[in-house]
Amino acid sequence: MRKIDLSNVQSASSETARDINRRILLNLIRSRQPISRAELARSSGLQRSTVSAIADHLIKEGWVVKGSVGRLPRGRRPIYLKLNTKRAIIGIDIRPSGTIIAIADINARFDSQEFLPTPPDSRKAVKQLADRLKQLIRSRPGMSFEGIGVSLPGRIDSKSQKLCFAPNLHWRSIDIKTPLSRATGLEVELENAANACVLAEAWFGHNDSARDLVVVTVSEGIGTGLFMNGQLVRGPHGMAGEFGHMTMEVGGPLCGCGNRGCWETLASNRAALRYYHQSNETKNGPTFLELLALADQGDVKAVKALDTQARYLGRGLRMLATGFAPAAIIIVGEITRAWHRFGPAIEKEVTAYPLPGGIPRIQPAHDGETARLRGTVALVLQKHFAASSFL
Asked: Which residues sit opposite 166 in a β-bridge?
């Protein structure tokens, strides 16, 4: 995926011009809506006749609709264009703790969300999803569904399009895409959760002009998504960015991947709960959100557990900062609710040793609660809005 850089747009003059210019105009409408044809022509550098022809085609396709009519002191009154919010996308965020299914318009505004338990049996989980998706689509006859985006806590094989590595789900290699597509008649796009959060930040976040970002998701495990030079980095088999399973402590705690001492065994939410249980005699311990609340209430053991998590998290982030020198590192997860606690501790660890090239911004995602779901929307949109291979 490559985003179009709207600050440096150049129109094409080959046989690919129509597709390139169509994507440029779609992105201009998305980012500046409502916008008139005249403004589109000025911003893109395209001729007004070209803009009108493409705009009419986008309206016919249902991507764009006419909005309000502007007022000018003289001349033809402009008709403003905007994206069609009746065109919808289904987003699915699968986690070990549960699955969220959401419906969003193409501006990534969510109309509804619902929670389902995630069955430990992968085939049962996929069948449950397929049945529920059919019901959802039938219940929204007035909507035009463009596709389905799925965020997963694992890696997708780029060739087979199967889930091939999901230690926290404990699912073996499985084809999720084909059953969901057959059940709904819609195209299905799958992506690792961290990569989905990268897409959410690149398309809808406050860093949409940045071309070098690292996004780290902190939940049951740790995922890392890389956005380098304006492109999502996946690697030849979709496994790029698996820093959560990088050994940080030789002989450390056993990880779901089979290794010991992985970063996520030391810095994830599960790690924080383990630290708390080790120092507390209570058998029925708190959830991670309850652990955050206990720390705010002054529970010394909870504070110590979270401080240990933050310290290990900061060490891993320092390696990412040194290795990739990104403009920013974005943190996604429940820890962002307690950024007053985690932020300073992480920054202290990252800045403990001088970094060549300076220190990147380390900040919580502005939409941490919905980052994965917004990423699933971007997964579907990028087929139409992302820069073509000719740009």
From this structure: 171
What is residue 210's predicted lDDT score, i.e. its pLDDT?
76
**Mean pLDDT, the chain cut into blocks of 10 residues (391 residues total):** 58 65 91 92 92 93 85 74 92 93 91 92 94 94 92 87 88 92 95 90 76 92 92 83 93 93 96 90 82 96 97 95 92 93 94 80 83 92 70 41
Q: Select the CATH number that applies to the domain covering 6-83 from these four: 2.60.40.10, 3.30.70.120, 1.20.950.20, 1.10.10.10.
A: 1.10.10.10
φ, ψ (nearest 5 deg) of residue 75: 90, -175
| Residues of each domain in the chain carrying CATH 3.30.420.40 | 87-198+372-385, 207-366
**Cβ within 8 Å of residue 219, ≥6 positions away:** 95, 153, 268, 269, 333, 334
Written as six digits, the tokens of 343 are 């932020």
Can you give the pLDDT at residue 225? Answer: 93
